[in-house]
Amino acid sequence: MKSISIGLLGLGTVGCGVVKIVQNHQDKLMHQIGCPVEVKKALVLDVNKERGVDLARIVLTENPHDVISDSEIDIIVEVMGGIEETKKYLMEALSNGKHVVTANKDLMALYGPELLAKASANQCDLFYEASVAGGIPILRSLVDGLASDRITKMMGIVNGTTNFILTKMSKEQRSFLDVLKEAQDLGFAESDPAADVEGLDAARKMAILSTLGFSMDIHLNDVKVEGITKVSNEDIVYAKQFGYVMKLIGIAHRQGEKVEVSVQPTLLEEDHPLASVHDEYNAVYVYGEAVGETMFYGPGAGSLPTATAVVSDLVGVMKNMRLGVNGNSAVLPQFEKQLKSDEEIQAKYFIRILIEDSVGVMANITSIFASHGVSLEKILQKPLSSSQQAEIVLVTHGAVQKDFTCIIEELTNLHSIQSIKSYYRVEGEI
Amino acid sequence: MKSISIGLLGLGTVGCGVVKIVQNHQDKLMHQIGCPVEVKKALVLDVNKERGVDLARIVLTENPHDVISDSEIDIIVEVMGGIEETKKYLMEALSNGKHVVTANKDLMALYGPELLAKASANQCDLFYEASVAGGIPILRSLVDGLASDRITKMMGIVNGTTNFILTKMSKEQRSFLDVLKEAQDLGFAESDPAADVEGLDAARKMAILSTLGFSMDIHLNDVKVEGITKVSNEDIVYAKQFGYVMKLIGIAHRQGEKVEVSVQPTLLEEDHPLASVHDEYNAVYVYGEAVGETMFYGPGAGSLPTATAVVSDLVGVMKNMRLGVNGNSAVLPQFEKQLKSDEEIQAKYFIRILIEDSVGVMANITSIFASHGVSLEKILQKPLSSSQQAEIVLVTHGAVQKDFTCIIEELTNLHSIQSIKSYYRVEGEI
């Protein structure tokens, strides 16, 4: 029986996980596909490096063309990362009629549509489940499981590093920098943590999720991004008093024909399903018109979880090969992209302000909100000991983003306000 | 362009949901499938009944053969319920070359393998996502999303009625019968609630889940079942003191080649992802060797959520029709069924005992545990006011089921013990 041959681009953490799963679960794979499957070659930076997996039957090479032009290789698994160079390899592999499975969110967020079109033109499959939320089969669930529904909202905790940091900050009342350091020591955060803590990694995943969920070509640049570097412990403590939990949330919301996609530190109602997603776990909450609320939870990263998603995609490709129907899975976007303007985005906000504790301040503040038609849901005023100052925490009802921006500007100019300490979006109601 | 025709068996809550989704989401369906789809006929008990959906283009009939023998109908959607008669119709429909989508857990738990074999023999698809956990795409996730992994444990809150009742009992400290009554008034529980509260409904779903997850032909009779009718409010209150939440949990556990499948009221560690699944929601927690912990959460019942799963299955069938590859999706069980004996099942237990408060009782009790090699993790003794009695609550470390049964028997015979009030399995550690 002819076996199916796989070529790996990259043999790091995820690549080694793929090798392990293909070796350890060979029986299950063979039962499903009907023939053996083997990793034939792997592109590496250094063929002599020790990797802790059995590489006896795998040819290692430092030349990408040894892999992407090998006529015996059926499927390319791309787990090397990188963007421009990697794209070139994959376009070439697809031209060579090879199916592709990738875990590369950076690449898919930027060049997904182009790569998918290339795959389609060459009757090849291009699957990328592992690019979003590691081991959670969320892309399939959007495309197949909820195929009949109209998805109107997705909220995702799609970055494990920031969720780990915020969980620790909340539970142990420690500062951002302090916990970041620990996360780096534990290997949960990169030595250059910018892509994680500035929200870019989450934004890439939200671009991919919203493209699929809304059937619209959402680009990374369409995603508004704000990271967690300014989140303070006081914010978390005050939020808790109001029944909120601080999370870095990717929000994709469709109303009528228009959508918004953003990533920002967000205060979630504590009984929302996402509020109990702790540590480095990921979860994607999906609201569909017919199905209502669903949530998909699991590990967002890590060698074996991510490799599970890659190999499950491989199974998909191989089943299609058996049936001779590769290259038919991708559904092109159904709708023109229409992004909401600042006048169309509506949200609740939490604001923390430091004031001089004098007559009429609260009246001044609340009248600014009122003049923009924004009403307040919760108010807390607390004198600060040993000073003439007080802190005010407010939670608005739904406010148009443009109005809210004006309110912040006017508050900043108010004499009796010392400073606006912070403000966050509030989510959790449907 | 030729449209695809659907015949409905049954036009109750779910059937009407299917009609609504097919009508309302016609654009999305057409975009995915490439041709229109319409419900052509529906089998009903009474053609004159008012149903609140647009039936203008649907032929209603009281004769099943009008539907299953109609040569223009491509796909049969079975949402009528029932077992023997329904099976006959579906076998006939499959013989007629019609694909089948069903939401019928009773049928699939009993005759799934037989129906799937029939479908396969006739090159037909038979999909049944809606039979487990309503709107949650859990069957697909097991079969496709986690295709490459070896699943070792599944725990499910797969019955909305009992989860609603236990949530209310916990939050409002009310009795089982009191909350059951309310659930019946609200329409969350049937007037004959036995199948739900005795655990049978959950057992059916666990048979289906474990058959797929373990690739083994698990029959309903293989599932040990215990319902929630004996759960008392005191149990819930004591459990809470120990950090546990009471849930009706379906447990499917594989160790080596052997499996156990059961449904019982279970005490979950309060930080377990399933512990925060409240009200009528369902969730399935899946542990895979490679992926680790995942959880799938959503509505377990209801007209539109269940219909979403049905119509998503329809999309799957129709995509296969377009590609000409129907009848290839079902993977036959890979393994011979091997059930664990009572000597192979291990679990932690919570036990609540009423004793005479006299010298040496605790020593007697603990020595019974010790003599069976079972050690204790937590102990609480509490005097009861106005009597010479005390309550003891114990939590064991892992105990072999057979030993635990002996322990309960010996405790029952101990003079100083007034009664064993209750005992429950404890879960939540991996």
From TrEMBL, chains A, B:
Superkingdom: Bacteria
Cofactor: a metal cation
Keyword field contains Amino-acid biosynthesis: yes
Positions contributing to NADPH binding: 105
Pathway(s) annotated for this protein in UniProt: Amino-acid biosynthesis; L-threonine biosynthesis; L-threonine from L-aspartate: step 3/5; Amino-acid biosynthesis; L-methionine biosynthesis via de novo pathway; L-homoserine from L-aspartate: step 3/3
Residues annotated as domain ACT: 350-428
Class in the EC hierarchy, top level: oxidoreductase
Keyword Signal: no
An example Gene Ontology biological process: threonine biosynthetic process
Positions of L-homoserine binding: 190
Family membership noted in the UniProt record: Belongs to the homoserine dehydrogenase family.
Protein name: Homoserine dehydrogenase
Organism: Bacillus coahuilensis p1.1.43
